[in-house]
Amino acid sequence: MREVNYDERQHLVYARARALPPETMTEWLRAFARHAPAGRPLTVLDLGSGTGRFTPLLAEEFGGPVYGVEPSVRMREVAEAGAAHPAVTYLEGSATEIPLPDASCDLVLLFLVLHHVRDHQAAAAEIARVLRPGGRVLIRSSFPDRMPELLWYSYFPGARLVDEQVFPRMEPLVEDFAEAGLAYVTVDRVQERIADSLSDYADRLRLRGSSTFERLTEEEILDGFAALDAAVDTERVARPVDEESDLLVLERS
After folding, report:
1. pTM score of the predicted model
2. Most Cβ neighbours (<10 Å): which of 18, 41, 140, 144?
């Protein structure tokens, strides 16, 4: 499948399309704090930080410097304009080329990032390099061997097929990271509210902020929105959209 270029269109809509309700952001920060190393402050790497959805919040939560590393120039520009923080530095880089010194970080977050990384072994080695002993890696991802039943798959069945192909399977991913000295700790299943109503959910999906849309045909997209709009028309009382998501936790030996 072709690579998604976030400098073309995605940077224009990503922040709005992937925004989460405040209570969901709080729930994710609680999950990150549960699995972070003890002690504060912590130096945090937000790897694949995009438009800075979590980056300034990580600085508030962990009290130390946060580095948002992102390969897309346009996504970084959006982050610098809309998610600035005195403790945050946005840097050009990627999962396989992190512009930080050895053993400089206590915590690394990859939030919906690894499906864009081709060489997981190289990424694991690079992440291990910048982590201090006892440091933690938090990986929010979908895993085809644990694929959740997301609501939008009901309207865009091709999206599930795409995600099953592009997202990494958990077992080989854990093996790749273990070889780099990053040991499995646990998988946390996080309950998150995605939207407060089906109508709000549809409005966000129309922005096509998920990279999966880039891999669907226009016919699949139009058919999906037609079905979703029909469902929205029947919504008399707001129906919140909730999902379960996996957070894989690893530790540097």
Report:
1. 0.92
2. 140
